[in-house]
Amino acid sequence: MFLKAKPVYPVGISDLMNNGVAxxxxxxxxxxxxxxxxxxxxxxxxxxGSFLHHGPxxxxxxxxxxxxxxxxxxxxxxxxAVVIRLITPRANSYSTLDQxxxxxxxxxxxxxxxxxxxxxxxxxxxxxxDHVRKTPRxxxxxTFVESFHMTPETERFYSDPxxxxxxxxxxxxxxxxxxxxRGICYPVFEKKTAVGVVRTGSAVxxxxxxxxxxxxxxxxxxxxxxxxxxxxxxPVLDLLANRLTPDETPSFTDPRSFGMKKNSFVLLxxxxxxxxxxxxxxxxxxxxxxxxxxxxxxxxxxxxxxxxDSAEVASAVMKKGTYRxxxxxxxxxxxxxxxxxxxxxxxxxxxxxxxxxxxxxxxxSPDPDxxxxxxxxxxxxxxxxYDIYMDCPSRERAGWLCDSxxxxxxxxxxxxxxxxxxxxxxxxxxADSFPGLPEGMLPMCWPSDHPNGNYIPNWAMWYVLxxxxxxxxxxxxxxxxxxxxxxxALCRFFEQYENGDGLLERLPAWVFVExxxxxxxxxxxxxxxxxxxxxxxxxxxxxxxxxxxxxxAEKIRKYIRENTLVNGFFxxxxxxxxxxxxxxxxxxxxxxxxxxxxxxxxxxxxHPELWNTLVTAFGPDRKEKGLYPEIYPAxxxxxNYLRLExxxxxGLDGQLLAETKGYFLYMAERTxxxxxxxxxxxxxxxxxxxHAAYWLLAIRGEA
Length: 703
Fold this sequence. Notes:
- The protein is of the alpha+beta class.
- The chain is about 25% helix and about 25% strand.
- The longest helix is centred in the last third of the chain and has 19 residues, at about 475-495.
């Protein structure tokens, strides 16, 4: 994939946490030029100061997907500045891997290499001049908050790097890397600016809190971070130290260009939730610090920056001058707040939107509410799907199993292809091992780090279920065959937890059913988990022809059918008694019932009364009607999704359409995206929720 480029990195700094290195090259005009590039862990590319690309696509440790980008239309000058910001966290997380940094890049026109890393001084490197290294963790799942120290020299670096005074770092050529093609479509980028001014007001700095209120900013020691004493900048505490007093009415109404007085704030509205790198032009009339805070929703008309148990903040300390501010990482928000202690002028505040290419498939529905939900589902898919399937583009940006089962259906429904899914599934197959996990177990999200050894055994089962659906969608037997070794190893892992009845008992780690009361009922024998296990065993048989697994699955279903009903509803769990017997807990959840019907333990023929009750008495308004209060309600994921899918597979599409509005319309109207839970207390943009588009297209069809 490279003709001349070698992997390189500055000497002696590969273990620094949150390290920022900027690579630069001067390239002549070349109309047909391409930039071929990969690296670890996250880069942002500018040419002549203009943003080009954010990457690379993620994959498993020790392997690297390569971007090939056409750049000829940007090489318009006699000499063109190609600048690549490379951030290497060297800290474990769910969003990027903890592995040594490197960059491998070359610009070429045909077979002529115009510049290449590792070839003389084609590319030089400096410590990223505006990047502040020692900052808080963004969240338990992501790495570090972004802070910048900006001067006229740091600004000039992006358009004329050779003229700046920053010390050039000695580079070493590293051993060859295992390179693989990107394998999926490239994201599209689009500048989006704020459309409204929500509030303006004063910002008076008071006493700084001694400690952030959430443990995620000083996490469990197993997750690497800086201590509070080590931090060079702490935008979290800086923001919390400000007392914000809103004006009665905003002091201006045009969000495209405005001035801010010393010690003031402005709260902007993007019109809907979007994902991308925060960007704007800022003229600092004097030395100033600007704190950026952002969120998907407002509380009491203001941003609550720690709502997601993550630090939804960034900051920039600016010397007097004019700057193109741009974060390296992508964030997700509808509302963006700026707080400044100096006089500044702001132009075009917003983000460089990043997402899956535009979806051309339209919904054939005359119902405006269905169109709103469909548009929100498409937005949710696009913002969570451009290198892997993410759970959310905000708090985590992680590739979770089970979530992916639902998002994969959306991809195929919207595009007729499964390109992202193939790469997502293949990332598990390509991995040589999963450090910290027991033999045979798959990570709950990937690619990611799991130094605390935690995993969700249930989510590994969903991987096998997704493989089975993937084969039916694509006929891609090659990937299925390459997955066989890991699938059978997973089966062997579960076999050690089968009891005398063939059921899984006392599963270890984080046994997860859904975010509801059901998660408190997972031991000793959890029946939703066992229904899922039966489904997984059937999938193994369908994939690899192991009939013994299908027989084992039917034995599990038979046991649950005959032994777990309590007053007409399936009980969630049994506990092992001192005399060795199993005792039903008597606790029953709504989601447990859906598991039973979804995985074939029950059907409308075997349990007609229960099925009728679920169809007629349950749904989005059951809690308001006070029906069956003894059955603990389901949450969005995955209970409500299993319910809606059951309505669809049973031909109850009219009811499905009505309940879709009950579950999703208020989300679409508030953020333009679909949420993790049935309330706004968590992520308001979750990839699996895009599955609503799958149902709508299945019922209404394409326009």
